[in-house]
Structures
1.
Amino acid sequence: MLRRLLKDFRFGVLPVPGRIIAIVFFVALFVIPLIDDSKYSLFVLTTSSLLVIFAVSWDLLSGYSGQVNFGHALFFGVSAYTVGLLHKYFDLQPWATIPLGTLVAVGIGVVTCIPALRLRGPYLSLLTMSFPLVLLGLVMAFKDWTGGEFGIPGIPPIGGTHVGQYYICLIVMTVSVLIMWKLTDAGSKYIRTGLIFHAIREDEIATRASGINTINYKILAFVIGGFFCGLAGALYAHVLGTVSISYLSMTMSFRAIIYVVFGGIVSIYGPVVGVYTLQTLLQFAGQAGQNFLGQNQILIMSVIVILVLIFMPEGVAVWIRDKIERECPRCKLANGAWRKECRACSAPLH
Amino acid sequence: MIQQIIIGTLVTGGVYALLAVGFSLIFGNARVINMAHTGFFMLAAYGLYYFIRRLGLAAAPAIVITLPVVTLLGILAYRFLINPIREHHAAVLLMTVAIALVFQESMTAVFSSKYWSIPSLIPGFTDIVGVSVLNQKLLVLGVVVVVIVAVWLILSRTKLGIALRATAQDAEVATLMGISVPRTLMITMGIATFLAAVAAVVVAPIWTIHPVMWSLPLVMVLVIVVLGGLGSVKGSIIGAFIIALVEVSVAILMPQYSYLRVVFAILAMVIVLVVRPGGLFGVIFEEERL
């Protein structure tokens, strides 16, 4: 087992610069609290890791299976509000609220499917965009129970200290991203979902003609997306300690899309890069609103997004990967850009 | 009560119709979901505010300056930001959202996030069937009727209108017929932005001007165009009045639940979509058919 892992590491990771960077990055995330355990920087990193789950689950649902969902904040907000209400009225502890919140988000995912399966393209996107707004209207209309615009404060943190909380969120994020990466891996021999999601996005009729029940797989995509997004929302409510209407706002939905498209759509590492660049770096550079950068964060983020879309429409992460890696034209294996021949089949790389 | 609902529906529906027709035109021709559409609406409102309140101009020159500037801005945004990436659906969407956010944030930076207002273009009010109506609202109605008739005449009677409709039906064949598709799309964007700016000019004195004034109309416009059928001008006008009727009735009949007016508007849209997945007058394009 260990020997196989070592072999995988030597032949699967070391020759590919992108994978080395990914591993170094995750190791760095795990050792950061040893270097800097100030409350503010760990808080920024904790929320970033939850936003990573949020963004990656959008990528799985909308990028991979092509069901472009403009209302991803629905799952996030529903889960967070479930956590808040359960805490407020039943005084439940995090170990109970988080699974229940996630479960409700999955249920909402199934309910969203009913109209979503009938519609496609822009109609689907605009319809899904309206769902969180419906919930927002309900939250504001029943202020007495939900707290209206002030939300539900006083949700307890998880994991004892802020370092513990950071590690819990980081581990949940790493595991979720790994699971979603495996689920969407089109080249996998054991899991077919990745291939089928790609097929549904490219041509639904052809997929159906190949004997695949596309309806089931679309529902599955909504369930997986809802599950991970709900998980992120429930943890986010505990980390911030409060649930507010901003969780359900249109801006929240667009944040997922901004991170994903910035990093590179239909790639699991794209949203990770997107969140850690746009959220974490900007947050640290802004010094919590002390300088010009911090006060005009949304403006700067929007301008960056516009520039990225014009000059690298594939996304930043994909653009960088294409610079440092080259795909073998014969066996489709990733190679370092400095190689002249493929490392497996020695076909010339151009 | 009924008279109030009818007049409210006509005024709100008129403004929504102006916005939705522009949105529909640009979607039908260029297949661009322009989330910045109401952003231009907001810009025009701020432009009026700036010229009238800050520079002290009269209303007429302010309007004469604002309308072309905003239209030009829309054309420039289309030419240099949207057109290069028109092929990627999600990217276009994100681009227009980013443009709207840039507008919102720069307006916040320049005018702060306070609420502003401008004086009515025509002061006073008139008594109609027992309801006193602001003259400004009557002006809204008049302008809406004139503009929509003008758009309809342009679309149906002029060479430009034929070119626009041909591009909407099939861009490739339109090119073969000697129509310059890129130019047509830019003109479409110009008309759409112009309609949004006109809506802002007539409605700015009634609504308050603030940096997030674009988001609620945007949601309403999206609901309207989906309900009416994306890309259908007739559908957007009818959808605008249906949604305005729902919104105004909720606001007048149960004022304590006025937050629910978006919910009811969306419910109306969902019901239409479940019965007819293409909207009321949806055009299903050959290459997009299942």
2.
Amino acid sequence: MKSHCNDAEFAEALLAGTPPAHVAECEVCRSEWEALGGAIGSFRQTAHQDAERPASFWTAQRAGIRSRIPRRAMAAGLRWAFVSGLFLCIFAVMLFLPGRTSKAPVSTNTASATKPALDDDALLRQVDEAVTDDTPPAMEPTALIASEMNSALSKGSQDQ
Amino acid sequence: MSATLQPAVVAGTVNAQGLAEEDFESIVLAHQQRIYRLLLTLLRDPDAAASLTQDCFLRAYEKRHTFRGEASVGTWLTHIAVNLMRDHVRSRRQGFWKKIFQSGNSSDGANEEAVSEAVADAHATPEQQVLAREQADTVWRAVSRLSGQQREVFVLRFSEEMPIEEIAVALDLSVGTVKSHLSRAVAAVRKHLKETYGEIALQRR
């Protein structure tokens, strides 16, 4: 005669929903099968009965779900808007941050562009003065000697 | 959202590119009781079960475009519900499953009455009702001592009566692993029944 059913055989039979063949010829296993099946059946029945709720409960559940859907969608939209705004702010701060290397060359270029312009003006002024002057710069020493001789001669004639 | 839905979608045989928004309310209507019951059986906390049921459908709504009909809608929702339940248990680990012991040991009789009412059969004698209550209580206690996955498998199979293949999909396990968990869970329940009632008493039942 076969020994009593083991756990695996009971589990297999429970899954299949049919008692093990051995149960038909063994009073002990039949009792245990009935007890196990009955207990699990009671467990299922209890679980189902515990979860029974009035219709108003299910309606409220659906209303709760419905009310949370737009809020979630809006929250997602706000999240994206916030992230986009944050990126824009960071970009703006980086763009206008003082002491940035990108701004330095601009100021340098402006200075270097202004300075030659000033030098050019001075040079032009010098050229104008030289052109309008009676004595060319190269002849200035000679002109100085000549003027000193003239003044000495005129001084001598006054003394006589 | 409309209240109409093709039966194929409710039954879970849809092959469309995701679930249409207009189908969503009908899906909630068709599955909310089963999802709530599953979460209540696993958590034994009505408030948490109600809250997580809503979360489950909200997550399903957000991910409706990813549903490809490879599994049924019911299996897909079960997968979401079990994941939410696991997250919930992780965040409130200390309180998990204590309620089952409290309900089993309560002396005020309220829970016993609830269980008694739950298993009461209009045609059952008072002795049969008491026996059914004791049996259910014993299984609850045994289930509470199972590991997380064993408990999930046991509840999905014996409370929700899901096929093994669907349990495997819902829990991301192989069919062999599901069977193994079930075998161990049944062994644990059987052992607990024997410990509670004794070999002889069990045999007399």
